[in-house]
Amino acid sequence: MNLTVIGTGYVGLVSGVCFSDLGNNVVCVDKDSPKIEMLLRGEVPIYEPGLKELIAKNTAEGRLSFSTDISAPVQDAEIVFIAVGTPQLPNGEANLQYIDQAAREIAVALNGYKIIVTKSTVPVGTNERIKQIIGELTTHPFDVVSVPEFLREGSAIKDTLHPDRVIIGAESKEAAETIAVLHRPLTSKIIVTDIRSAEMIKYASNAFLATKISFINEIANICEKVGADVTLVAKGMGEDRRIGASFLNAGIGYGGSCFPKDTHALIQIAGNVEYDFKLLRSVVEVNQMQRFNVISKLQESLEDLAGKTVGIWGLAFKPNTDDVREAPALEIVPALITHGAKVKVYDPIAMDKFRKEYNHESILWSSNAVAAAAECDALCLLTEWDEFVKTDLQQIEKVMDRPILVDGRNVFSQEQIEKTDFTYYSVGRPMMNRSNAQKPSFLNI
Ligand SMILES: NC(=O)c1ccc[n+]([C@@H]2O[C@H](COP(=O)([O-])OP(=O)(O)OC[C@H]3O[C@@H](n4cnc5c(N)ncnc54)[C@H](O)[C@@H]3O)[C@@H](O)[C@H]2O)c1
Ligand SMILES: O=c1ccn([C@@H]2O[C@H](COP(=O)(O)OP(=O)(O)O[C@H]3O[C@H](CO)[C@@H](O)[C@H](O)[C@H]3O)[C@@H](O)[C@H]2O)c(=O)[nH]1
């Protein structure tokens, strides 16, 4: 099929590239000309494992191209995807200005029947709004279909090529069938719904996952007070198939471009119909507090942070991405500086993006993990990059001024810590050090 994708960000680029890899002809369009120029030079504007290779392969085979012009690609396409951003407005609602603009541009370019697929995450009723905007500007026939996207950054290609399910929200049976045919090579689990339900499935899914994270983080906070270990608790809970083991990793809370904005948007969607989504408001509040547990633990171990040097491992909101949108590091690093600390930071990929969002004279930008730990009074792990997880902690403690480690993602085991002199704080697990003999863990018996 001939496809055009409007918006060449994490979702549009990955979807376009994967559809081309399945044999479709795809044009990825973006109004950001430096981004398109990079792609035309064979460079990739975002970091996503495997993406560069897949772009090179499909451009070389002539199925994938890039453009800043929307007209010709829309005219040549049977299906036009909208994958533009829907960022958060100050009041929490989704900003639909990019959606509206894309809809107007598609309408003006139309030259005959097309299916317009919304992949962006949009509030309930937005696809009807897109239909109205386009309908007012064209006499050509078209259908609007909602196909919300569920990919995760860092595993976006795998998620796109092997989705758990594909949701198709449509008014037209024929349009739904065409979109189902396009997705059938990816999965047999295709669920067709009305458009409003499809829009709601996306927000409800993200809100539920965010709820799981805030739930386990609160359990972790209680575990710390009662002397239980949240990793064992999560393991025990997760074996119950009704609960499931995923998204029960306690830590410093969720970040990223989706959960924070989509939970706020759903609270607003509910509020607009006079429903107070109390549970979700608490999920957001718990998440906001959780990241500052790192600061409390540093204060517990160092007392006054003024004049201390703290190493930070990880700036991206999760591993395997360069995305720092709503990353916990963007609040933790400034908070440390406000308390008077010097901060040495290192991330394998996200340093440049972080620096664009936040820079300060109290930050030392380190070139590797060991350098970020060197001469520090304490070290905090904020993102569980493999590089940190596989580090030799004995080497790290040697380069530090004081062996204090705050692990915001629970990546190190009791056995690893016992081989060191670290005073080790994690989330929902007991503090460990040489003088604090731990009860054995029974996890592997
Ligand atoms: N990032 C994710 O992991 C993810 C996953 C699922 C769903 N989503 C949703 O998908 C949507 C896109 O997210 P993203 O992270 O890919 O955004 P992004 O900010 O990375 O990319 C959006 C792109 O759209 C372009 N754009 C905006 N208006 C345009 C127009 N009129 N014409 C052409 N290009 C235009 C921008 O220049 C930008 O490059 C959002 O609604 C988001 O909530 C994101
Ligand atoms: O047990 C867990 C799982 C995740 N996280 C955190 O939650 C955030 C989000 O992680 P993840 O969901 O893996 O990444 P995203 O790329 O933000 O993907 C989410 O948001 C996307 C955008 O809507 C959806 O498409 C995906 O299905 C949804 O998982 C990150 O900060 C993680 O560190 C935890 O703290 N504990």
UniProtKB/TrEMBL annotation:
Please state the Enzyme Commission number of this protein: 1.1.1.22
Keyword list (alphabetical) reads: NAD, Oxidoreductase
Top EC class for this record: oxidoreductase
Q: Which NCBIfam families match?
A: NDP-sugDHase
- The regions listed as transmembrane in this protein's record are none
Q: What is the lineage of its organism?
A: Bacteria, Bacillati, Bacillota, Bacilli, Bacillales
- Signal peptide annotation: none
Against InterPro entries, the record matches this protein to: 6-PGluconate_DH-like_C_sf, NAD(P)-bd_dom_sf, UDP-Glc/GDP-Man, UDP-Glc/GDP-Man_DH_C, UDP-Glc/GDP-Man_DH_C_sf, UDP-Glc/GDP-Man_DH_dimer, UDP-Glc/GDP-Man_DH_N, UDPglc_DH_bac
Keyword check for Oxidoreductase = yes
- NAD is among the record's keywords: yes
Q: Which GO terms describe its molecular function?
A: oxidoreductase activity
Q: Which domain of life is it from?
A: Bacteria
Q: What is this protein called?
A: UDP-glucose 6-dehydrogenase
Name any one Pfam family assigned in the record.
UDPG_MGDP_dh_C
As for family, the record states: Belongs to the UDP-glucose/GDP-mannose dehydrogenase family.
Q: In which pathway does it act?
A: Nucleotide-sugar biosynthesis; UDP-alpha-D-glucuronate biosynthesis; UDP-alpha-D-glucuronate from UDP-alpha-D-glucose: step 1/1
Per the record, what are the reactions this protein catalyses?
UDP-alpha-D-glucose + 2 NAD(+) + H2O = UDP-alpha-D-glucuronate + 2 NADH + 3 H(+)
UDP-glucose/GDP-mannose dehydrogenase C-terminal domain residues are 311-414
